[in-house]
């Protein structure tokens, strides 16, 4: 239950994070859109205001033209602010080029310190600023008046745009309320779906806890046709297969116990049967050694007894060998660490290599698992390393490598020496076939080594090939890696 509560908490936190992130992003983008729209509206309105004001001022100057426009502009300032207030529906103030206020339609809006818009106007630029106080928003718009290319004064307008920003706030409020309503409905829907999903998980959690505690006689009752229903069905099937596998393992365990008991009894009997003739042979041999031929009758009797017991022992060993062959033919291969066997063979062959002033370098990876016969693999490695010792140059190194390549284990036996001609490579695996040039090096060899190696490799579903060039001969053996998936499936 704690797990489910944790999932619920994470789910709710995730929804809240998504909601507030979305709300902030939405608010940010809507604000940008509204501000951009307001800026466009204000800019258009101010441009119209400036255009109308300029037209009125120029007409006034055309009708009453003075020799000095700046003086005339100062004299007509009071009349100008009244007329421009009516034309622009805004409060108007007139200033000299030095920043002195000449007249104002209403002095209250212009009593506050002059803003950045007026400072820009003094520099000959047109600018506006927006002032927000509580719920009142006011635009101050200033620009220099130019007649015949000469600046004669500054006009500054004050216009209330509270309605525009109030509408913007109302739009933001509507968007906020709609977003909250949508989120609330989405939250309820998601929670309903979430509960519909977590209920089967709670059931499967309880059942899996029972399985962990060793109770396999459990079943999930979930009558649904969706993916969760299929999952519950598969879970039930899995428990059933586990129960069957455990039953099979228990039967195999009992059978192995019985088999081990029979095997122990068999080895005890074999040991007893072998011990009797060996003890007799050793006893008579020691007595003959002590007495020599002084007692001819005892000597002949002892020799005869040793011969009889040796024959019986030989016959017994032959019977055991036949029994072993029969058992091996019926038994399957076992999981073997080929790297461990090869390492052992390399260590055992070091003395023979040193006898011929040669050195064996063994480079093996770990966990090279093969399904096969340890005895036959050992025989394979001994034959190949023995061949490398026989046919390599004096005072040279024999390189033995074993590594995992793709899905096969590759064994490489490399030595320096006379190369094998291509025409001989094609027949080198044939029994009793040997290259003529190699007869001198191993007179006692019967030419069966590589044919036996090839048979062992093929029994293990592998391949063997020989490469010989540039005074270097390599025997490459590839045997499939043991597939652990077949055991676990």
Describe the secondary-structure layout.
Elements: H1 2-63, H2 69-75, H3 77-88, E1 91-95, E2 101-104, H4 116-122, E3 127-133, E4 136-147, E5 150-160, H5 162-212, H6 227-291, H7 296-330, E6 334-337, H8 338-355, E7 359-364, E8 369-372, H9 374-391, E9 397-405, E10 408-416, H10 422-425, H11 449-459, E11 463-469, E12 472-480, H12 484-488
Parallel strand pairs: 7-9
Antiparallel strand pairs: 1-2, 1-5, 3-4, 4-5, 6-8, 9-10, 10-12, 11-12
Helix pairs in contact: 1-3, 1-5, 5-6, 6-7, 8-9, 9-11
Highlighted features:
single chain; 489 residues; Beta-Lactamase; Helix Hairpins; 3 domains; 5-stranded antiparallel beta sheet; 5-stranded mixed beta sheet; 12 helices; 18% strand
Number of helices: 12
Strand proportion, as a percent range, falls in 15-25%
End-to-end gap: 33 Å
The low-confidence parts are: 326-331, 437-446
Mean pLDDT: 79
What shape does the CA trace take? elongated
Radius of gyration: 53 Å
Number of strands: 12
- Number of discrete domains: 3
Lateral arrangement of strands in the main beta sheet? 2-1-5-4-3
CATH superfamily of the largest domain: PAS domain
The residue fraction in helices comes out at 55-70%
Order of helices and strands: HHHEEHEEEHHHEHEEHEEHHEEH
Structural class determined from secondary elements: alpha+beta
């Amino acid at each position: 239950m704690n797990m489910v509560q944790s999932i619920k908490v994470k789910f709710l936190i995730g929804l809240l994070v998504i909601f507030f992130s979305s709300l902030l992003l939405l608010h940010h983008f809507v604000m940008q859109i509204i501000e951009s729209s307001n800026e466009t509206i204000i800019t258009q309105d101010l441009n119209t205001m400036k255009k109308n004001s300029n037209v009125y001022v120029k007409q006034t100057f055309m009708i009453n033209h003075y020799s000095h426009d700046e003086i005339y502009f100062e004299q007509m300032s009071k009349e100008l602010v009244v007329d421009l207030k009516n034309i622009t529906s805004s409060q108007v103030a007139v200033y000299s080029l030095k920043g002195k206020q000449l007249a104002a339609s209403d002095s209250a809006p212009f009593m506050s310190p002059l803003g950045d818009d007026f400072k820009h106007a003094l520099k000959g630029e047109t600018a506006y600023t927006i002032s927000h106080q509580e719920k009142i928003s006011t635009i101050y718009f200033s620009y220099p008046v130019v007649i015949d290319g000469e600046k004669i004064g500054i006009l500054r307008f004050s216009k209330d745009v509270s309605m525009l920003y109030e509408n913007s706030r109302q739009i933001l409020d509507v968007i906020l309320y709609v977003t909250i309503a949508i989120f609330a409905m989405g939250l309820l829907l998601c929670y309903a779906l979430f509960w519909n999903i977590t209920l089967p998980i709670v059931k499967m959690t309880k059942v899996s806890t029972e399985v962990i505690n060793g109770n396999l006689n459990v079943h999930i009752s979930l009558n649904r046709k969706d993916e969760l229903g299929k999952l519950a069905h598969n879970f039930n099937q899995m428990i059933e297969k586990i129960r069957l596998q455990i039953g099979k393992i228990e039967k195999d365990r009992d059978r192995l116990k019985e088999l081990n008991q029979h095997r122990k009894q068999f080895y005890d009997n074999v040991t007893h049967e072998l011990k009797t003739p060996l003890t007799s042979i050793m006893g008579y041999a020691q007595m003959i050694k002590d007495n020599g031929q002084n007692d001819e009758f005892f000597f002949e009797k002892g020799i005869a007894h040793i011969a009889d017991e040796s024959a019986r022992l030989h016959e017994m060993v032959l019977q055991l060998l036949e029994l072993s062959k029969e058992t091996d033919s019926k038994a399957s291969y076992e999981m073997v660490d080929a790297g461990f066997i090869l390492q052992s063979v390399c260590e055992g062959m070091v003395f023979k290599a040193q006898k011929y002033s040669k050195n064996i370098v063994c480079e093996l990876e770990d966990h090279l698992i093969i399904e096969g016969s340890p005895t036959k693999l050992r025989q394979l490695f001994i034959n190949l390393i023995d061949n490398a010792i026989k046919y390599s140059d004096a005072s040279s190194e024999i390189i033995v490598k074993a590594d995992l390549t793709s899905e096969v284990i590759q064994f490489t036996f490399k030595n320096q020496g006379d190369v094998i001609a291509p025409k001989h490579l094609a027949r080198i695996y044939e029994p009793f076939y040997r290259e003529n040039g190699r007869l001198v090096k191993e007179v006692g060899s019967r030419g069966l080594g590589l044919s036996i190696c090839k048979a062992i490799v093929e029994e293990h579903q592998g391949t063997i090939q020989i490469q010989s060039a540039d005074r270097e001969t390599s025997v490459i053996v590839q045997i499939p890696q043991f597939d652990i998936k077949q055991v676990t499936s």
